[in-house]
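Hi L., both proteins are below.
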Amino acid sequence: MHSFIYLASQSPRRQELLKQMGVCFEMLAPTPDEDSERIETPLLHEKARTYVERVTLAKSAAALTRWQKTDLAWAPILCADTAVSLPNSLEGEILGKPVDAIDAARILNLLSGKTHEVLTAVAITVNPSEKPLCLVQVSKVQFAHLSQEQIDAYIASAEPFGKAGAYGIQGLGGAFIPSIEGSYSGIMGLPIFETAQLLKRAQVSCI
């Protein structure tokens, strides 16, 4: 049984959720020389589920390489990635992190009044010689109709930046969401129930 894991993510939300689960972890975050932007660039005509799984497994491979360059003791490595999608939409199959205020407004206008999907892939590398265990959790999120004033005020709060889909359900963005179907923690970035199942398979101590 492993007493801790490595978390290969800089997301404060994923750190909070692991603490909520009672999981001990140490950071194995990407280094500045790693090209995470290239990994996260969608391929032509790539579907959201394929995308989020591919990105998470690529991050897992990079994290394993990172560990191999250290003298750290082995522990399972957890990676995750979240994508927001308007399924079968040419404009919004994959809605990434906004690059600026104009892009954030574009994404929020696309989501306004519609139901979209939030897909979070979680991968755990149990040992260095085996492929990671991986799953994808999908939730549906209903968005209210947003006025331009609401969108402008939300962008002014700076919350949309650094978040897939240009919003955070655990913050001010939660006021735009009348209902969800699926996992609230998955929409935040790490589905607790599914992650706990993977951790048990990886023989990691957790509640």
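That was the first. Here is the second:
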Amino acid sequence: MAAREQMTGCERVIGALKGGEVDRLPLITPTSVATVESMAATGAYFPEAHTDPHKMAALAAAGHELLGFDTTAPYFSILLEAAALGCDVDWNPADAMPAVKKNPLERWDDWRPPSNFLDRQPVKALLKAIRLLKDRYGNRIAVVGKVIGPWTLAYHLCGVQNFLLGLVLEPDSVRELLDRLLAVPLQLAAAELGAGADVLTWADHATSDLVSAAAYREFLLPRHQQAMEQWPAEIPVILHTCGRATDRLGYFTQTGFTAFHFDSRNPPGELLNLANGKLTLVGGLNNPQTLLNSRVDEVRTAVEELLRAGVHLVAPECAVPLRTPNRNLQAVVRAVRDFNRRQREHGEK
């Protein structure tokens, strides 16, 4: 680690995600760090910040301006594509994330993504917000785009139970649906890259509490590989999957994703061994207990434990609970910066 900061924030984030040498460890947020406290500070509240690009950008900027992260992530939920694809979405008030009220597809055989998907308001707002943030920050920090993968989109469109039942009863039909849905994140990812995103989070919730590792291997792994084969190598892509993942991490290493954003339920040492240098690990901080309900000193301890375990890109495990105190997120930043300082001082001795 170099003695002085010599990289831009964007260079540092991209370099660290790719496993390269950086002047200090960056502070990365693959998913939302929007809080009610930040909404009050910026005047950009949910639900408007989900679909108004200026409010979306203002709230996302708080992740850097108020909290101190080296990234800004303007996609706060997982439902922008779902809304654009026809799901009935309840955007909810400032202290609640959006939810799907009704899944539009009971049958999906004839369904195709709409040709004007990128022109629908939730998607247009995200693309505009990315442009606003890139214009504001340039390379000072990294703008994190996000797309929802075909597995999660199938949950939204078909309903979880209906879709998972299809894995057993109509596997060929499910494969065809996933192939059609894969076009959605690929199209949006390309548009986000064109709007100025420096990094992409790919959220696909093939979680162990719902599907087996074998189902991931059979149905989703080939589509993730196909997606990454088409993706420019210079842009890091972070796979986000909630829940325990040790039983499928070996498959994740075969996808071509740059990094894996992991849940606190995964032992970091075991994940590092399984990743074997093929995936950079990001995340690990528990949301409901540590970030939402713990004291600042307890947050710092949790960060330091992850750093000592070898996870150097410490971040919240998922979008933070909206009532998370900003002081706890700022404690994450300070803890990582203190670790950087100690590493630098040790290197100078």
